[in-house]
Write a structure and sequence with these properties.
The chain is α+β, with helices and mostly antiparallel strands. The protein is about 20% helix and about 30% strand. It has an 8-stranded antiparallel sheet, with no helix packed on it.
Length: about 180
């Protein structure tokens, strides 16, 4: 009986230490979204999203600065991501940015595409706020991301003056994020 105890203990230790690290398919961090990272090439997207639908516009895109976005949908039709490569129509190009559409994509601090401004400012240092025509773009360098908020979410006096410098305290806490984009 004693001769079986040592091998059993060794097997137990071997199996218990072989935990497989599972990749979170919806995790967002600096230079990484799910299985995509800053070195992922466009040609790899098809394999990474084999169970999803990939919509790749290959028409003449000369009127949109040659950018060829790749949209990823689940088989049930829900859009997950919109990927912008560095070079249009080049399978070896890496990814420039990813717009996160599905709210299951979230940062380690719980920020998603359906977060509010309060969620963002409470969890990340705001690096910059850009006052655009119809929106305000909040930049967070910590995760190389921008959060766009529609100016309709702002007080009336802030909606039409593009020269106004917007301070984080001027943006209502309940302002909803319209676009969440991660840059590589």
């Amino acid at each position: 009986m004693k001769k079986y105890i040592a091998p059993i203990i060794i097997l137990f230790i071997a199996f218990s230490s072989c935990k497989e690290d599972k990749i979170d398919l919806f995790a967002v961090s600096k230079h990484k979204v799910g299985m995509l990272n800053d070195s992922t090439q466009v040609k790899e997207i098809k394999a990474l999203f084999a169970n999803d639908s990939i919509v790749n516009f290959k028409e003449d895109d000369s009127f949109v600065n040659g950018i060829n976005t790749i949209d990823i949908y689940e088989k049930n039709g829900n859009q997950l991501l919109s990927i912008t490569p560095n070079e249009a129509l080049d399978s070896t190009s890496t990814i420039s940015s990813i717009q996160l559409i599905d709210p299951r994509y979230k940062t380690e601090k719980g920020i998603t595409s359906i977060s509010t401004f309060k969620d963002v400012k409470d969890n990340y240092k705001i690096s910059n706020i850009s006052n655009l025509i119809n929106s305000v773009m909040i930049t967070v360098n910590e995760i190389d991301a921008t959060f766009t908020i529609d100016k309709k979410e702002l007080p009336t006096n802030m909606r039409f003056d593009m020269e106004m410098k917007i301070d984080p305290i001027q943006i209502p806490d309940n302002a909803k994020v319209k676009f969440f984009i991660v840059y590589f």
